[in-house]
Structure formats: structure tokens, C-alpha cells
Design a protein that fits this description.
- The protein is α+β, with helices and mostly antiparallel strands.
- The chain contains ten helices and eleven strands.
- 31% of the residues lie in helices and 20% in strands.
- The protein is globular.
- Strand 9 (253-257), helix 9 and strand 10 (274-276) form a beta-alpha-beta unit.
- The strands form two sheets. It has a nine-stranded mixed beta sheet with strand order 6-11-3-4-5-10-9-8-7. Strands 1-2 form a two-stranded antiparallel ribbon.
- The longest helix is centred in the N-terminal third of the chain and has 13 residues, at 37-49.
Length: 300
């Protein structure tokens, strides 16, 4: 299969590729026009999610799939000139659409108060924060581009989420304390201080696993993410080491089995990934987790 675009390429065609990936949540940051590692990881994630061969370069099939899901970016968009589109929601608006917006922002850690269906100051500030992080025009108002990005990173909220019904955390025999962001939906809840990962569904712990993290030089990122794609027999294209049962959640960072962790325990570190040493348990977890499930990585 011939490569249309591949690592090392540069120019307007790469700019278009990056923006199309950005439209559907597979690229973050400024459009550079350079087919770098971040672009390659976005391409690999898109290919894996769509059931295509994970090539790390763009062939005709990948391009056709990507084009069918996205629109032609404008010259401004390909050159990081940010202009907002027509406003869909703004301060003063009320109703179920605002409730859904607030609940979706809450899923990814951008909205803290109760969902109230009122587009108030707190909602506007949350939208501004999301827009700034995603390289969108920072207006505090929701245009189609902002809404598309939020929807691509979240799932349809439940009625409980829309009405602030919080699940009760199930007591857990080995005493893992869950972050509040782990109590709704399907979540890989990962605590650095406790060195544990909990698989949580609607506030109920399904399993816990011992984990280790990156070193000070290659830290595991904290925050709220989602599983972008999975690779059962993955091998790192950067470090050329096996990463079985990999579940990618932030660029090249993934939850995966580590033979080194199984052998040497905490006398070592990852390159930023979340390592698991129980191979049977992560094999089971891999089969349960779905792309789009939330990942929360926190210090406590």
C-alpha cells in the first residue's frame, strides 16, 4: 500500500491532514505542517479505531476514511488563524441543551458545579478553558466547532448526570480511594500515590491492579482523558519494546502490561505509560474497556 503522507513530510497537505485529525479529536495543538511523532500517533489512533491497518503513515484508504468524516479546512484553520463561528449557546441561555453541555464538560473535568441548565459565568469560564486547551477561539460561547470537539471527547450524558444524581462509591476491600471524577460512567481510575488502577463502572469498582508510572524525566500526565484506541499486541515504534494490551489515552501514553514491571517491580519506571504487572488481569481488563471510556490520572 503506497504512502501518500508519511513521517518526515511537510507542507500544506500535512497541514490539511493535521486539521482533519483535529476535527475528530485525533490531533491537539497548533497546525505545524510537519508530519512529526504527534501526527503519526494521531494517524495510528485513527487507523486502529476504524479497523484499518495501523501503518503510521497515510495510504489512500486512510485518506478516504478521514475525508469522509471531516470537512475541508479553511486556509485560516490550516494556518492557526482562529475565528469563531456563529454562536449556538451563550450566557443567558437555558434548557436541556445547556444541561447536556455542562454534563459533557463535567465528564472531562472542565465543569465543577452542579448541572443547572443555565449558561452562567461558571459555564462560560469552563467553555473558555476547554477552548484554550484545544486551540479554539476563546470566546466562552459555543459555536459548532467547539460543540463538535466536546462531543467527540465525551458520550451522551445519562439522566443521572443531567440531574446531579451521584452514585455511591462501593467500599473496596483493599481500600483504594477514588477521585470524585471516577464516580460516574466507565472509568479507568489511576492513582499515583496509591500506585493502583481501578476499573470503575457507575461508581462501583470492578477490579483493581497494581501499577507504576513514568520517571521524573518522562512523567505520566495527570488529567482527564479518554481511551482513544487499543492494540492487543502493540510494539512501541519509539522504544521498540512490547506493550501488550495497550490502551492509549494521551498521545503515546497508554495503560499496558509490562514484563519489566512483573520482573523488577518498582525498581524501574516507564517512559510515561501506566504499567501493569498482572498479565491475566490486564488481559481481562483489555476485553472490557472500550474506546471512549474515561481515564482519570491523579496524584492522590
Amino acid at each position: 500500500m503506497a504512502a501518500l503522507l508519511s513521517p518526515g513530510d511537510s507542507g500544506d497537505r500535512v497541514r490539511e491532514l493535521q486539521h482533519r485529525l483535529l476535527q475528530i479529536g485525533w490531533f491537539e495543538g497548533k497546525i505545524s505542517g510537519d508530519f512529526d511523532d504527534k501526527t503519526r500517533l494521531g494517524v495510528e489512533g485513527f487507523q486502529a479505531k476504524r479497523g484499518l491497518p495501523v501503518l503510521g503513515f497515510v495510504d489512500q484508504v486512510t485518506m478516504d476514511n478521514l475525508n469522509s468524516m471531516t470537512r475541508q479546512p479553511t486556509e485560516d484553520e490550516m494556518n492557526n488563524v482562529l475565528k469563531p463561528g456563529p454562536t449556538l449557546m451563550a450566557k443567558g441561555d437555558k434548557g436541556d441543551n445547556v444541561k447536556e453541555l455542562q454534563a459533557r464538560l463535567k465528564q472531562i473535568g472542565w465543569y465543577g458545579p452542579d448541572v443547572n441548565g443555565e449558561y452562567d459565568d461558571a459555564t462560560a469560564e469552563s467553555v473558555k478553558g476547554f477552548q484554550g486547551k484545544r486551540q479554539l477561539p476563546v470566546t466562552g460561547e459555543v459555536d459548532q466547532r467547539t460543540l463538535d470537539r466536546i462531543n467527540s471527547m465525551t458520550r451522551k450524558p445519562t439522566q443521572d448526570e443531567m440531574n446531579n444524581v451521584k452514585p455511591t462509591q462501593k467500599p473496596e476491600e483493599n481500600g483504594m480511594t477514588l477521585d470524585d471524577r471516577c464516580l460516574q460512567g466507565r472509568v479507568l481510575c489511576i492513582s499515583k500515590a496509591q500506585r493502583k488502577l481501578a476499573w470503575v463502572i457507575d461508581g462501583r469498582v470492578q477490579m483493581t491492579l497494581a501499577v507504576r508510572f513514568g520517571s521524573d524525566e518522562t512523567p505520566t500526565r495527570n488529567g482527564v482523558f479518554s481511551v482513544g484506541w487499543k492494540s492487543r499486541d502493540h510494539v512501541s515504534t519509539i522504544y521498540h519494546t512490547p506493550m501488550p494490551y495497550a490502551m492509549f489515552f494521551s498521545g503515546g501514553q497508554a495503560v499496558h502490561y509490562s514484563a519489566d514491571f512483573a520482573k523488577n517491580g518498582y525498581n524501574g519506571a516507564s517512559h510515561g505509560c501506566v504499567n501493569v504487572r498482572d498479565k491475566g488481569a490486564i488481559a481481562s481488563l483489555f476485553d472490557q474497556v472500550q474506546p471512549g471510556d474515561k481515564v482519570v490520572v491523579y496524584t492522590d
